[in-house]
Amino acid sequence: MIRHLLSAADLDAETATLILDTAAEMAALAGREVKKLPTLRGRTVVNLFYEDSTRTRISFEAAAKRLSADVINFSAKGSSVSKGESLKDTALTLQAMGADAVVIRHPASGAPHRLSSWVDGSVVNAGDGTHEHPTQALLDAYTMRARLGRLDGLNVAIVGDVLHSRVARSNVLLLSTLGANVTLVGPPTLIPVDIAAALSKTTRVSYDLDSVLPDADVVMMLRVQTERMQDSYFPSAREYARRYGLDVPRMRKLPEHAIVMHPGPMNRGMEIAPEVADSPRSTIVEQVANGVSARMAVLYLLLGGKA
Amino acid sequence: MTSYLIRGARILGGEPADLLIRDGRIAEPGGAADETIDGTGLVALPGLVDLHTHLREPGREDAETVETGSRAAALGGYTAVCAMANTSPVADTAGVVEQVWRLGREAGLVDVQPIGAVTVGLAGERLAELGAMATSAATVRIFSDDGQCVADPRLMRRALEYVKAFDGVIAQHAEEPRLTEGAQMHEGEVSTRLGLTGWPAVAEEAIIARDVLLAEHVGSRLHVCHVSTAGSVEVLRHAKARGVRVTAEVTPHHLLLTDELAASYDPVYKVNPPLRTAADVQALREALVEGVIDIVATDHAPHAVEDKECEWAYARPGMLGLETALPIVLSVLGERWELIADRMSRTPARIAGLDGHGGSLAVGDPANVTLVDPAARRQVDAAELASRSRNTPYAGMTLPGRIVATFLRGEATVLDGKAVK
């Protein structure tokens, strides 16, 4: 097993499948009255969050606690970081306290890589800048597999602000490893240069959402920040929604079995219409539940558990 | 003054001959000298001249001082360096350039020629007192806002015109600022993979294209700092064919390293302009040989540890260069000594107007001399560098060529590979 999870590219097909299978076992626990395993008793997991993210932090906290680990939450606000402490000094402090794993969320791409060179414990990337969010990709893959029964050969459309999306990067890498066909859809201004060469040769790009929908098994809508408008990535929220938003007429173009995903938090009415978000095709709430199982599997395997 | 007889060195790579240094000049061989150096296997070059050095003093003496930077330069085989203006306070007045010039004289290891800022505070809004700096004791001839681009086309035009009065040259940091907002590394496949904001090649090429046209229009001299892309080479080739008075430099790191190194997220590889692709590296090497790029300049940019031991996005851009420049050029160009002397000494001295530097080691020339052992190979150890900073991207690399001795107007600044003072 690998020591850190910094990028979805760290996972080969075998390891990724092991994590998803382990997550399935973890999910079975959620149905029991006692939702806890003693596996990580006496181990310390630090949640080191330099960005506000209630969803991801709580998910990791629940995952660690269900494995009986001691959890320390360390948020940048109101801590030594706001007094100007460097990431390296914070890392050395956590190291001295005996952290077995550090889960880090950071606004700078690559911060988890840097951290991993300064601590002995495992580092889990919980989202770094516009780089990656590998556990999100794992929970997304888990959700697709649970709903559709397979990943190999699935047509997955990832729609929206790919340029600034760590979710998209991790999903392209992991889904390609697991045999899915990924098409990135968005205005050309929000598709990064050389994306196929950068991530996976099989990745396709389309600027036309309507043409992609009839063949899609999965549509993953990305959050689009309205601030992007000020930078002229697109002219207006209205035009964006019209060209790339998933509304009811567009949803009807999807095959019967297709699902709609969103990593949250959503801009209802911008990239996704409320009727779509709340439809039976939507997996948005399942994704949250699956997040805990996927993160349990990651912590369990990184910290030396046997499947 | 100690006289030196260097026996059997290959002058500019030619046949072994004796070289006598006496009273600050190259003298007719013959007669005794105070010291004799066995030059067997060594190559004698005119002392190297760096058109682009950051010495950090005044303001960031924790990263480098004029003295420590001068020592690094001498150890790298340099006898003259041009000190960039982005100090704190900015070298935008006669007072600051004279201070830097005086500190250089006091250190006495290389000639430190200050570069003056083009605009007040490097703010890109109004011209600094260029004439006052030109007529100061520092006799400034190169003006640059390096680190910042003179982006306003009207201001750039005025600057190019104004310095004609004293044969000055504007050295432009070519970076269209609106195209590089938040930029962290070369825009391409690697930046996409790493999720780091891209610095597109066109941001450099567009400014160079504009500036060569402006220089042509007003008949002025333009120098382009740290050219980094294949596209820039094409623009320069075109401009030179039209007879525009433009010169250009390339750094050792842009001749050797590529953007793939950013994958480590180690900011020791963060530099501005950023490391580019292997295709760019190839084009820059060819342009340097061909003369489309005139010179190698180090862009030696020392940074304190805390400014590099951090997240990539928060790190300052820049890398050390003085002590490794010649070994890197040697590894890139091979033992083409005439070419190396031209690109690292003669032409930079001419662009900077530094009399006495960039000679041909002829009898009567000021004895600015570098002795190199091309057969020696040396592993770069950051801890051994004379610079006060440690941000070298070459740590652990084994490079050819060792600087054995450096003479500044006949005084040894480096002997047996060690700084004399």
TrEMBL record, chain A:
Any one Gene Ontology BP term: 'de novo' pyrimidine nucleobase biosynthetic process
Residue numbers binding L-aspartate: K83, R166, R223
Pathway where this protein functions: Pyrimidine metabolism; UMP biosynthesis via de novo pathway; (S)-dihydroorotate from bicarbonate: step 2/3
GO molecular function: amino acid binding; aspartate carbamoyltransferase activity
GO cellular component: cytosol
Span of domain Aspartate/ornithine carbamoyltransferase Asp/Orn-binding: 152-302
Keywords, alphabetical: Pyrimidine biosynthesis, Transferase
Annotated positions binding carbamoyl phosphate: R55, T56, R105, H133, Q136, G264, P265
Coiled-coil region(s): none
Annotated catalysed reactions: carbamoyl phosphate + L-aspartate = N-carbamoyl-L-aspartate + phosphate + H(+)
Pfam families per record: OTCace, OTCace_N
UniProt key word Transferase: yes
UniProt EC number: 2.1.3.2
InterPro entries: Asp/Orn_carbamoyltranf_P-bd, Asp/Orn_carbamoylTrfase, Asp/Orn_carbamoylTrfase_sf, Asp_carbamoyltransf, Asp_carbamoyltransf_Asp/Orn-bd
Ranges of residues in domain Aspartate/ornithine carbamoyltransferase carbamoyl-P binding: 3-145
Annotated family: Belongs to the aspartate/ornithine carbamoyltransferase superfamily. ATCase family.
Protein role: Catalyzes the condensation of carbamoyl phosphate and aspartate to form carbamoyl aspartate and inorganic phosphate, the committed step in the de novo pyrimidine nucleotide biosynthesis pathway.
Record text on subunit structure and interactions: Heterododecamer (2C3:3R2) of six catalytic PyrB chains organized as two trimers (C3), and six regulatory PyrI chains organized as three dimers (R2).
Protein name per its UniProtKB record: Aspartate carbamoyltransferase
Organism of derivation: Spirilliplanes yamanashiensis
Organism taxonomic ancestry: Bacteria, Bacillati, Actinomycetota, Actinomycetes, Micromonosporales
Gene: pyrB
TrEMBL record, chain B:
Residues where Zn(2+) 1 binds: H52, H54, D146, D299
Protein name stated in the entry: Dihydroorotase
Entry keywords, A to Z: Hydrolase, Metal-binding, Pyrimidine biosynthesis, Zinc
NCBIfam families noted in UniProt: PRK09357.1-1 (NF006836), pyrC_multi (TIGR00857)
Any GO molecular function: dihydroorotase activity
Catalytic activity: (S)-dihydroorotate + H2O = N-carbamoyl-L-aspartate + H(+)
InterPro entries assigned to the protein according to its UniProt record, in alphabetical order: DHOase, DHOase/Allantoinase_Hydrolase, DHOase_cat, Dihydroorotase_CS, Metal-dep_hydrolase_composite, Metal_Hydrolase
Cofactor details (free text): Binds 2 Zn(2+) ions per subunit.
GO cellular component: cytoplasm
Metal-binding listed as a keyword: yes
Function (record text): Catalyzes the reversible cyclization of carbamoyl aspartate to dihydroorotate.
Source organism superkingdom: Bacteria
Family membership noted in the UniProt record: Belongs to the metallo-dependent hydrolases superfamily. DHOase family. Class I DHOase subfamily.
Stored PROSITE patterns: DIHYDROOROTASE_2 (PS00483)
Residue span(s) of domain Dihydroorotase catalytic: 43-230
Enzyme Commission no: 3.5.2.3
Cofactors, names only: Zn(2+)
